[in-house]
Sequence to fold (65 residues):
Amino acid sequence: MKQNMGAWDKFIRIVVAIGIAFAWAAGYISGILAIVLLVIAAILLFTSMLGFCPLYMMFHISTKR
Fold:
């Protein structure tokens, strides 16, 4: 698995994931929407930790210098 995510890409994904988690914890989102957004947040965190995004690979995109 070759890394295809740059530092800014990782940072933005982590910030969005934290924002979703905060919105859920504060009670701004609930129900099915909360579940869907939390799954997306988990995916964002996981891909950030790996530095690899499968969608980027499919579309031949790389934000890594």
User: Anything to note?
Assistant: The chain is about 70% helix and 0% strand.
